[in-house]
TrEMBL record:
The keyword Cell membrane applies. Residues 35-479 form the Major facilitator superfamily (MFS) profile domain. SUPFAM superfamilies: MFS general substrate transporter. It is a multi-pass membrane protein. It comes from the Bacteria. Residues 14-23 have a biased composition (Low complexity). It is found in: Cell membrane. It comes from Streptomyces sirii. NCBIfam families: efflux_EmrB. Gene3D superfamilies: MFS general substrate transporter like domains. This is DHA2 family efflux MFS transporter permease subunit. Residues 1-23 are annotated as: Disordered.
Length: 485
C-alpha cells in the first residue's frame, strides 16, 4: 500500500530524534541492572554456542560417522538460520512485546540445544541446529531491545556496554570450554551445557523481564520477509565462501551474491512503499543512524576477522592446541573488560568520540602485529591483544548506542535489528576474507609471512572505521539538529 500524502513519516521514514549535548551521567537504577543481568544469560549462550561447536566439529563428524563437509553444515546452517531470524525481531517485538519475544526465543534455543544433544545422525543434528539458529537470531536483538526500553537514552551507554560483555566473553571463552568438554566429556555436552543456563534464564526472566506492550493491528509483511529471508542468507553464504578451500566459482559464489543483492534491493524499494514494512528502512534517512550502522559493519569485520587471524596464528605458527590457543587469547578478553567504562564514557560524551578513540587505538594495535617476527615475545603479543580488546570495547557498543539514542522508542526494535544485521554481515565478511588472505598469500597454505598481510588488511579496515566514527561525530553535531527528520 502506498503511503498517504498526509503522513510525512510514511513518506520520509520514521521520525528520529536529533542528538543532544551530553549531560552528566545519572545513577542506573537497580531494576535496570537486574533486567540487564538476565538478558546477558541469553546473549552469552548465543555467542558461546558458535565457538563451542567450531572447536568440536571434527569430533562430531567422527562420532556420527559423517564426512567433515556434511558436519560443516552444523555450523553453516546455524549461522544462516541466525541471519534469517534477525529480521523477525522488529515485528515480533511489536506484536508480542520485546520481553515476551525474548522469553519465547530463549525457550526455543534451550529446547533446540537439548534436541541437538539427542541427535543420532548428522541430518537430525543439522535440522536441530537450524531451529537453534532461528531462536538465537531472535534472542540477541530482542534482549537488546528490552535493555534499551528499560534504560532509556540517558543510561543506554552504560547498560548496553555491560550487556556487551557477553558478546566478547562468549567467543573468547568458547575455544577453551569447548576443548575441555571434548577432552573430558562428549560432544553432546557442547549443546547440553546450554540447557541449565537456559532454564535459569527462563526462571529469572519470568520474574524480572518486563513483557512489553503489544501493538494492535500489526500486520506481518510476508513479501518483505520472503525477500529478506532469501537475500540475507544468500548474501551471507556468498561472502563466507572466499575463505573456504576450492576458491569462489560462478555457481557457488557469484550466483548467491547476485541473488542476495537483488532480493535486498527489492526489499528496500518495496519496503518504502509498504504501510507496515518488516523493517523501517527510513531510519537510514538519519545521518547519525546511517553512520553508526556502517561503523557497526566495520566493527564486525575487525572483531571477527581479528579473532580468527589471531587464533590461526597461535595454532599454525606457534603450534598451540585448541586449549592453549584459548588461553593465549585471554589478553583480548582482559582488554574488553573495560566495556563498562566505555559505557560511562558514551553516556557522558556520546558514541561518536568514544568510537573514534576506539578505532584509532585498534589501528595502533595492528601495526606492531603486522611488523613483528613470528617468534616475537608472547608478552608483546598479549599486549597487542589486550589493547585490541580495549579498542574493541570502545568501538562496538558506543557506535550502536549512537544509533539507538537517535530513534524514537516505538522504532527501537527495528533499529536494534538493523544494527545487528550489519554487525553479523561484517563478521561474516571479516572472518571469511581474512582467512582467504592468510591462505592465498601463502599459496593455499598458512605461513608466518601470510599473517602480516592479514594484519595489514585489518589496518585498512580500521582506517575505514576511523572514518565511520568521524562521520558519527560530525552527524551528531548539535548544529545539525533536525537532520533526517
Amino acid at each position: 500500500m502506498a503511503p498517504t500524502q498526509g503522513d510525512p513519516d510514511s513518506a520520509r521514514g520514521p521520525r528520529v530524534t536529533a542528538p543532544t549535548a551530553p549531560k552528566p551521567a545519572a545513577a542506573v537504577p537497580r531494576e535496570v541492572w537486574r533486567v540487564t543481568a538476565v538478558v546477558i544469560v541469553g546473549a552469552f549462550l548465543t555467542q558461546l554456542d558458535g565457538a563451542l561447536v567450531n572447536v568440536g566439529l571434527a569430533t562430531v563428524a567422527d562420532s556420527l560417522d559423517a564426512p567433515l563437509s556434511s558436519a560443516q553444515w552444523t555450523v553453516s546452517g546455524y549461522l544462516l538460520a541466525l541471519v534469517i531470524g534477525l529480521p523477525l525481531c522488529g515485528w515480533g517485538s511489536q506484536r508480542l512485546g520485546a520481553g515476551r519475544l525474548w522469553l519465547w526465543a530463549l525457550g526455543g534455543f534451550t529446547a533446540a540445544s537439548a534436541l541437538c544433544a539427542l541427535a543420532t545422525d548428522i541430518r537430525l543434528l543439522i535440522a536441530f541446529r537450524v531451529l537453534q539458529g532461528l531462536a538465537g537470531g531472535l534472542l540477541l536483538p530482542a534482549g537488546q531491545t528490552v535493555i534499551a526500553q528499560v534504560a532509556g537514552r540517558a543510561l543506554m551507554g552504560r547498560v548496553m556496554s555491560t550487556a556487551g560483555m557477553a558478546l566478547v566473553l562468549g567467543p573468547a571463552a568458547g575455544p577453551t570450554i569447548g576443548g575441555l568438554l571434548i577432552a573430558h566429556a562428549s560432544w553432546q555436552w557442547l549443546f547440553l551445557v546450554n540447557v541449565p543456563l537456559g532454564l535459569l534464564g527462563l526462571w529469572l526472566g519470568r520474574r524480572i523481564i518486563p513483557l512489553g506492550e503489544r501493538a494492535t493491528g500489526t500486520r506481518f509483511d510476508v513479501r518483505g520477509f520472503v525477500l529478506i529471508g532469501v537475500g540475507l542468507p544468500a548474501l551471507t553464504y556468498a561472502v563466507s565462501l572466499p575463505g573456504r578451500s576450492g576458491g569462489p566459482g560462478l555457481a557457488t559464489t557469484y550466483a548467491p551474491l547476485l541473488l542476495g543483492c537483488c532480493a535486498l534491493a527489492a526489499f528496500v524499494l518495496l519496503g518504502r512503499r509498504t504501510e507496515s514494512p518488516l523493517l523501517r528502512i527510513g531510519l537510514f534517512t538519519n545521518r547519525v543512524f546511517a553512520a553508526a550502522a556502517a561503523s557497526s559493519f566495520l566493527a564486525g569485520v575487525i572483531q571477527f576477522g581479528a579473532l580468527v587471524v589471531w587464533a590461526l596464528y597461535f595454532q599454525m605458527v606457534r603450534g598451540y592446541d585448541v586449549i592453549g590457543t584459548g588461553l593465549a587469547m585471554v589478553g583480548f578478553a582482559a582488554g574488553a573488560a573495560v566495556l563498562p567504562l566505555s559505557g560511562r564514557l558514551t553516556d557522558r560524551f556520546g558514541g561518536g568520540p568514544v568510537s573514534l578513540a576506539g578505532a584509532v587505538l585498534t589501528t595502533a594495535t595492528f601495526l606492531p602485529a603486522a611488523l613483528l617476527p613470528p617468534d616475537a615475545s608472547l608478552l608483546v603479543l598479549e599486549a597487542c591483544l589486550f589493547f585490541l580488546g580495549v579498542g574493541n570495547a570502545l568501538s562496538v557498543v558506543p557506535s550502536s548506542t549512537a544509533a539507538y539514542v537517535t530513534v524514537d522508542p516505538p522504532h527501537l526494535p527495528d533499529a536494534v535489528t538493523l544494527v545487528n544485521i550489519f554487525l553479523r554481515l561484517g563478521g561474516a565478511v571479516g572472518a571469511s576474507l581474512l582467512v582467504a588472505v592468510v591462505t592465498h598469500s601463502a599459496g593455499g597454505q598458512t605461513a608466518p609471512g601470510s599473517y602480516h598481510s592479514a594484519f595489514w588488511c585489518l589496518i585498512a579496515a580500521s582506517v575505514l572505521a576511523i572514518a565511520g566514527a568521524a562521520a558519527i561525530l560530525i552527524a551528531s553535531d548539535p548544529r545539525a539538529e533536525g537532520t533526517g527528520k
